[in-house]
Every structure is written in structure tokens, then in C-alpha cells.
Amino acid sequence: MHKPSEPIPARFPVSRVWTASWIWHPQAPARNAWVLFRREFAVERGEGARLFISADTRYRAWLNGQLLGDGPVQSQPYHQYYDERDLAPHLRAGTNCLAVLVHHQGVQDAARGGLLAEVVADRGQPVCVTDANWRAVVGPWRVDSYFSGSNRIGPFQEHVDLRQLPVGWQQPGFDDRAWAAPVVITSRGNDRPPLVMPWCRLLPRDIAFLEERPVHATGLQCVEECLDLAARRAPGDLSLSLSQAGRPVQWARVEAAENLLREAGETVLACSDRHRDRVTDGRYDPCLTLDFGRVLTGYAEVEVEAPAGARLEIGYAERLVDGRFNNALECAFADGATLAAGRNVFRPLVWRSFRYLRLRLKNCEQPLRVRAVRAIEVRYPYVRRGSFRGDARLERIFEISRTTVELCSIESLMDTPYREQAQWLGDVAAVTVPAIYACFGDTALPGKFLRQAGMNTRPTGLLANISNVASTDWQNDIPDYSLWWVIALWRHYQYTGDARYLHECYPELQRILRTHLERVNADGVLAGMFGWVFMDWAAVDVTGSCAAYNALFAGACDAAAAVARFKNDAWAAETYAAAAAGVRRAFARTFVDPRTGVVMDAVADGVRSARCSEHGNAAAIAFDCVDAATADRIIDAVFERKTVAATEAQPFFMVVVLQALRRRGRTDLALRLLEDRWGKRMVDRGRTSCTEEWYENGSWRSGDWQGFQRTHSHAWSACPAEFLIAGLAGLEIREPGCRKVRITPYRAAFAYEVIYPTPRGDIVVRWDGRAPRITVPAGVEWEAMP
């Protein structure tokens, strides 16, 4: 929390003062542009230096040929991050070369290509800044490669011709006289960041750099040969040839394929050459599918000795289709390189999520020697402070849930690292952030999310669905996701005790609440909401006044009133509290069916919906919209004896179901649902992380079966990660920063130990079947409830 005496720059993230300018190649394409930049500079012996760097959209930087890393953190151009890197380990006395590859996607609204870099010596003087004295050349990457529009970080397949990549361009002394001088980007006469549009807000990286480690495949799922046939209708899409069904190897050459699973050893590959007898009809390519044993996030990296012109294609998939690699149906993520003669190391610029890696060699009848195929796994540097140990079955559910949160935590908190790589507002606010607190105690990524999401306020008063890129699709914003963000904002303060996000984001909170308050009718409930009222993928009736939405609104009003009281905003606090009370007064008479005693989905034009869902009933309990007797009747009818037919919640809304059951002291039933849904539908099916919906091959969301792929790495399905720690401990934060907590351990039929990390240390709760043992760190006041 800031002190009243703090200067203004200490209260907000502020950019450094730049000497460098934004630059770009004058002839680079507007879309899917790949540009090489370089500049030489000198330092004195023993002198260190630091690099400050950003790019639109992504960079990879080297100093004297040594890889520095990739960046920046993905963001909107008006909320642009920059990195700071220590150059000392790679600096030489005398001449040094800073080389940067920049890929500009060209798909974000109002964005443009650009590089900003500044090297500052220890003495504080810039020794290298981006300006017109740099040299630049458009790189040998295919511009019309396949585009997957739903993916936000790596939408393009990367196709590069390594034969055309200038040898030695990352080293001092390279002759770049034939390269172009870049243009300095200006904005209404300004060329000094952050006055240059669209990057008008430059922010220092506020999260740690990613960890990287090499990982080898655990098995060869398939070794075969495929007929060499061109996909002439879609030559830019490598997923078509990578998804082609092959046959057992007969004519292509595959030697020692098992060495692909090892750190050392050589595999020899070659395409068939029998067709040169003019009798054999066709050439066959070696194709191999590697299984890494689990879904991971990482770069594919291949090291080979190759003849010039050989073509290597790489495909990525989380799962198989009918036992075979196929990513042409959906999520056509693939990369390819035309190889130079001799040693090649190919590592695409964008990491992917995958379990299965498909390799295909084309146009190579001479032996190609594979020295290594590996994944360079990337992870946010979480520390696994929180844990659950107890029932073996529940441990497995916890493990796949925690793993999913890790997979979805890279430089953004993503819905999935596979299909979309997008920081979806509600997914993160409702499920991912609470799980991060419980499993890792990290506050940097949640804080970054809250701020980044808040920078995406629409004229409608809502927040954009996604916030790691710019989006103008305001007509399809999900209004319930904005409510989840309001709740997450208050919970972040409760967990951390850090009030800066309340101060920064309070105006956004007020706009969200005003947008909703304007739609409260005379009965005290929301009469309806514009946009895409979502709840989750289940077939919930959201027509007119929706029960689940109104309950969520009441919960958001509670959170908003708490923030307003903290801000000493009496009018707002009273208004928000009155709105919550109004919903609760009207809820039962509006939505509860007097015949069955359960909540029906919606009311439209005075008529109560005939449909009932777990969503409306669980939300009514979780957000205190029905009395205790009604809540218990609902639990019996909807969740236990199931005497009323109710639409089942998908994994996302199960966070509310579990909260509701815990609130009514039915943790036993919550654990039963974990077993029935995560245990039988995920663990028993061999999942190593959580699927997007209950099934991997389709959905009942429309009321009937629709077959399409669901991801194997969706954080909104990972709510057991938080529930099996905080839920079993019965943990309730009573004062901000976890200064005071209430603990009500669940008296399970099995022994367990849970550890919940707080900013003040770890809370440990052990249950041996007789009595709980509770350990609380110094500085935390606590009370135990029977």
C-alpha cells in the first residue's frame, strides 16, 4: 500500500527515460513480417551493461551470437511491456554486436511493427540505441503461412528458409552494408518513447522471466513413411501433410529412431529414391510421432546435419485422433524449415503446448543425421508451496489440476496454452487466480492480470473478454466475466493486503457496477444483460432475468461495496450494498419454483423458465441468495438424490458448485462430485491435465451432442487445485493480507495434510481421523471452528 507521502511516480508503474527510438524496416510487409536487426557497439574492458528492449510483436535477441532470450510479455500496444536484461556475461572488451529478430503479427488493431532497444553501460551512459544507424533486412520467412485466428500468441505457422539466413549476422564484423537503414517511427513530430503511438504506455516487466529446461520424449508413438504429395490448395498449411496417414517403413530410411528419446545418439533419416527408376510411382517421406508422456508448454528444438534444401516439418498436438496424429481438423499448429547444408538448429520463435510432436522430412534423398530432438519446456517460476496429501485418488485429481494451472501460467494467465493462448477474463478471475494463491502463493501474475484487464475498459462499461492483446469485438463481451473480475479484485486485496490495485482499478469497478445498476428493475433484480451472457458452456437458459447471473451480481456487489468502504466512498458503498440486498430479497420469489423448491434458470416477460440447472441453484447458495432451508432442499434435490432434472455444470462453473456445497457443510458431497467428474472423466481416461469440458471429443452444450475437439489444458477446469487445499482446511480470510484467518478443518474419513501459503508464511492443517493439528505462521491471528 502506498504511503500518503509517496510521490506520484511511486504509486504507478512508470517507464524509464528513453534515448532510443522505435524503428522498423521500410519495406517490411504489414502482416506476418520477420525482420533482422543488428548494431555493433563498444564497451571498455571490465564494463557491464544492461539491455532495455521491447518489440511489436515478439523478439529474440542475441549478443555476440549468444542467445539472450525472447520477449516481451504479450500485451496491448497501448499497454506495452519492455524487458531489462543483464549483458555482462556475454560482453567483450571492444566491439560487440546486438542482433534481434522481430516478428510482427500485424493482426492486432492499431498495432504496427517496431523495435525499441537501448544498451546502458554501468556508468549510466547509453552505448547503443535503436535509431537510423542500425541495419535491417527482411528475413527469409514465408509471409503467407497458415493463420489460426483464434490463437493470440502464435497464430502463424513459422516457415523459414535457413539457406537464406545470413551466416554470422549475430556476430561482430558481419558485413551488413547491403542491409537497409531502418526508419525511425514518429508520432505527430515525436520520436521519443513513450510519446510515440501506438506504444503510449511503456511498462517495465512486472513478472519474472520464464524458466527453461530441455525435455526428451518418452516414447515413439509412430514410425512410418508417407507418400510425398503436395497440398496444392493450401500450400501454406503444414498441418495437412503432417496429418497424412502413412504406412510401415518400406522404402524411406529410418535408422536408430529410438535415439530420438535420448540426450545422445544419432538418428538417420532419408526420403525414398526408388522413384528414380521411373518404375516406382512416388516418393515416400519418413514421418515420426514422438510422445512426451504429458502435455507441456515449450519450444520444439531440432539439431541436424543436413544436405541443403531438405525440408523439416514439425507438428504439435495435445491428443491423438483415432490413435493417430491429426492437427489438420483443428488447431493446425506447425512449423517448418528448409535446411542449409551442414549443421542446423531450428527452434521456432513461439512456444507451443503439446504432448505429441510430429516430424516429417521432405525433399531429402541423402541421409539427414538427427543429433537431437527435444522440447525446451518453458514455465513460470512458481514454487510449489501449497499442497494436498491424503486420499490417493484425490491426490491425482489435485495433481492434474495444479499442473493445468502451471501450463496456463506463462507470461499471461491463459485459458489454454494450446488453442487460444488468451488471457480470458472470467476464466482467470474465477478459477486460476484462487488456485495460484493456494498452490503457489504467487501474487505477481495475478496482480499483472488485474491491471492488464483493467486497461481494457469498453465504452459500454464492461471489460474486454481477453487482455493480453487488443480487442475491439465489444459486442461479444461476456458481462458476467466483468463481475468475476470485480470479485477477484477484492479477493486479491484480501489475500495480499496490497491496496494498490484497489486504488488503480476502482474507476473500472465503478463503471462495471454502473452498467449493471442501470439494468436493475423495480423488483430489485437484473432484468437482462446485453452482450454474450455466458455462465459456462452448458445449456443454461439466460433469457431475460437469469438466476445464476443475478446471484453472481449480488456477489460482485458485495465485493464492490467492500472496496468502496475501503475507499471511504460512502455513497457507492451504500448503493452497492443496497443492490445486493435487493437481489436477495427478490431472488426466491422470482426464481424458486414453489412446487419443486429449486431455482429455475430464468424469468422472461413474467414467465418462469421450465429449465433448471446446477448453475442457478449453486449460485443461489454460494452467493447467499436463498435461506438455509431452501439451500438444503436444493442440495438434496439437485445434487444428492437428484429428484429434479438439472443441467449439469461444466468444469468452469464447478468452482461455484464446490463453493456452495462447502458453504452448507457438504464437503462430503463436493468430494463425491470430484470423484464422479474429475476422477472418472479425466483421471480414469489418462489425462495428465484438465480437459476444457467433461469430454475431449465434443459437447452437449446445445442440448444435443456435437463432436469437436476440447483442449487438454484448460485452467478454468482446475478448481480442485484450490478446493482441495482451502476447502478441506475450511480456510476463510478475515483480515487483509491473511493477518487473521478462520480455519474449520473438514473431518474426512481419510487422513490428510494441506498446506496453504500466505504472504506471512504457510498454514498447515493435518487431520488424522481423530483431531486436527493446525500450524500457523507468526503474524497470523487465527481461530479454529469446531
Which topology of one domain does CATH recognise? Jelly Rolls
**Helicity range:** 10-25%
Number of strands: 35
**Tell me about the biggest sheet?**
11 strands, mixed
Poorly predicted tracts of residues: none
Tags for this model:
single chain, 786 residues, alpha+beta, Jelly Rolls, 11-stranded mixed sheet, 5-stranded antiparallel sheet, 35 strands, 23% helix, globular
Describe this structure in words.
- The chain is an alpha+beta fold.
- Among the domains are: 16-207, Jelly Rolls (Sandwich), CATH 2.60.120; 212-379, Sandwich (Jelly Rolls).
- 23% of the residues lie in helices and 26% in strands.
- Strands 11, 14, 15, 16, 17, 18, 19, 20, 21, 22 and 23 form an eleven-stranded mixed sheet that branches.
- A hairpin with a 4-residue loop joins β33 and β34 (772-775).
- α9 crosses α11 (654-663).
- The model has no long low-confidence stretch (mean pLDDT 97).
Q: What order do the helices and strands come in, and which of them pair?
A:
Blueprint: E1 23-24, E2 33-43, E3 49-56, E4 58-63, E5 66-71, E6 80-86, E7 94-104, E8 114-121, E9 126-129, E10 135-138, E11 158-161, E12 183-184, E13 202-204, E14 211-215, E15 219-227, H1 239-242, E16 253-255, E17 267-270, E18 284-306, E19 311-317, E20 334-338, E21 342-346, E22 352-362, E23 368-379, E24 387-389, H2 392-407, H3 425-440, H4 444-454, H5 479-496, H6 500-517, E25 545-546, H7 547-566, H8 570-591, E26 602-604, E27 607-608, H9 614-622, H10 628-640, H11 654-663, H12 667-681, E28 698-699, E29 706-707, H13 720-729, E30 731-735, E31 740-743, E32 752-758, E33 761-767, E34 772-775, E35 781-784
Parallel strand pairs: 6-13, 11-20, 31-35
Antiparallel strand pairs: 1-12, 2-7, 2-10, 3-6, 3-8, 4-5, 4-7, 8-9, 14-23, 15-18, 16-17, 17-23, 18-21, 18-22, 18-23, 19-20, 19-22, 24-32, 25-26, 26-27, 28-29, 30-31, 32-33, 33-34
